[in-house]
Design brief:
Length: about 325
Amino acid sequence: MCCACRSLVRIRKAEGGGAVTDRLDELYRPQIEQFGITLEEAGDALTGAVSDERARARVVVYRLKGLCVVTSHRIEVRSDMAFHERSVLGLCVCTLSADSLSLCPVAQPNRAQRAGNVAVFGHVDDPQRCVLRAGDVHDAVSVTFLPEWFSRLEAREQRSALELIDEPGSACEAELACVLDRCLRSMTPLFGGRLLDGASALRGAETAVRTAIAWFEERSRAERAAGTREQARLVRAAERLVAMRMDEMLTLDELARALLTSRTRLCAVFRQETGESLGAYIRRSKMERARQLLERGGLSVSEVARGVGYPRVSSFTVAFERAFGMPPSAIGK
């Protein structure tokens, strides 16, 4: 079954499983309620804020034509808190701070920017749980369309959008990231834009998602022309899984089983596509993430070690020194 067909089956199940309104609510209400934020109408937007011992947060939400939600927030975390997020089938384009990108279901770049990290991914019904750390700053603007909206697109764009939902999420780079970051930030007063009426917000949201679909189509054409489409998808899936299971000592065999392939094929494809062994990529990703956490401050070396899947601080210290030529205790001093 092709990606587009699989997505259509999942969409029909979603349509039968609950009202559109309920699914739109799931895109923002559970997250906002965890901070005790009450939303109030401000024109065609919903806005809210809270400041307490856990966090200082501001939120702006647009619910558009029953098929799209645009959310923007700035959350300054004051004390560690558990956080959970329930995703809904759909297509999301977002711009994020580095702290938020680390929680996003995409392969992580080598060095995230403090702000303006752009990601594109399909929401799936897979609850995520994490801990927000004191000192984190979670800035984000996201546009999420439910799959029903895709019926408004021409056949080619609709097919591409359905395929993109099934793709491993990606962090965008260079010019595309700049274009989408500007587009998304212009839609909210939290990051230099302004409050919009519903029609203007919908136009901005559609521009963002159509830009992402066009980028996906161009990338897919290039990969098909090179004969590397399936290999590239497997590599992106592996990178995403490594990012999402960063706090585990994930073995190559476990990774291959999760991706429904053999260890031999996975390792061969990864090296062919990236020029790096999969084991080296996992180690490098963990060390880059550890360095980011240490540079940000607020966590002990042992907490950082556990956060990147090293139960023993001594093993983590050896790996860190091998990667950067200095002990983890030297970072941030």
